[in-house]
Specification:
InterPro entries: 6-blade_b-propeller_TolB-like, Cueball_EGF_LRP_Nidogen, LDLR_classB_rpt. With about 110 residues, the protein is mainly beta. About 0% of the residues lie in helices and about 45% in strands. Strand 5 and strand 6 form a beta hairpin.
Length: about 110
Amino acid sequence: MWINGLALDTKNDFLYWCDAYRNVIERIRWNGADREVLVQGVDKLSHPYGLAFLDNYIFFSEFKRGAVKRVNVDTPDHVQEIYQYPTTIFELAVFKTDPPKTDLQHFEYQGPHG
């Protein structure tokens, strides 16, 4: 195992994590029940690193590709790439804006030097 990212779903009591060695995103309830694999395989994710949860979506970065992808936790077979950056992306954070932005391509990037 090579756990890189952790995220919490406080509404449904789930802990999510990504494992870069196994190319997998999993979840488990806080009480240790209902462990399951949500996304698996290099065709859907490759070296996941950063992980965040918002509005029933898991957002994750791919360390080697500089990609940000998302997956709905209720329909995890459909992984959507929403951003590609020409360098490595480590951690990421997602948040709501007011007013809401509808363009999924709107990202603010902060590199390792600010």
